[in-house]
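Subgroup meeting minutes
Present: P.N., E.W., G.H.
Scribe: E.W.

1. P.N. recapped why we're keeping a running log of single-chain structure predictions: easier to compare across weeks, and new members can see raw inputs and outputs side by side.
2. G.H. added today's entry (309 aa).
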Amino acid sequence: MMLIRRFEEKAAEAYALGKIGGFLHLYIGEEAVAVGATSVLRPDDYVISAYREHGHCLAKGSDPRRVMAELFGRRDGLCKGKGGSMHLFDRAHNFLGGHAIVGAHLPIAAGVGFAIKYQGGDQVVVCYFGDGAVPQGEFHEAMNLSALWKLPVIWICENNRYAMGTAVERALAQTEIWKFGLTYGIPSEPVDGMDVLAVRAVVGRAVERARREKIPSLIEARTYRFRGHSMRDPAAAIYRTKEEVERERQRDPIVLFRERVLRAGLLTEADVRAIEKDVNDRVDEAVAFADASPEPPLEWLMTDVYKED
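Output recorded in log:
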């Protein structure tokens, strides 16, 4: 979680300096979801996400240096600088993207689940999406198909309560998102998305079911983003009050977990400081790597468009 947090903070700094162009959607505040969920996966399991995916990609094991280089649009990035923030992809770690169109990746996740089943594998696919994707037709189509064909997909809705600037209460008639899964007859439950161990436990049960019974699950992780929708909306001051944001910051998942492990005697303050130094060093190295990486050459413009035999 600390790696994701520091990475995102540095990415925000780089954006402000003009080193990152386009859009940048930060995962600050939501780290417990990606870390808790990924902690129960195997390396050969698949993860697919929407556009706020830096944390999911890092949690799946991607090299922070290559992720940062991709944000910088450099040739040593995960996608040779062509994907940028919203289209990260890492085949080596079974991270299937980063998808900018809201809800469009859910049918892809169902397809991955079908491929696993068709090939007789025992992997699972975790699909992250936001509350803004729930009103989309793709959500219901993918949910129905995964239930009908019994596909090993773990649907994780990261409900941070706002789709851009629209509160969930203004977009959904049913605001308890986990209940949508019940209509399709699949195991569904909510979880405190600010508690990394709670997320780990809930996703762990879903993964076990998916491997054993080849059935999907829907999990609503109730979380909160501390920053705006994107760096174009840094303060989110129009649709959220300062008091609300400060209240939610009291539930910072990193602070809560740190207090928990210190109370339990699992780590000492010195251990925590050592972890923080290691994280800071790794992220500083990632920024230096991205800075040093060259721009993609012009002749790459037409490469990777079609699959070449």
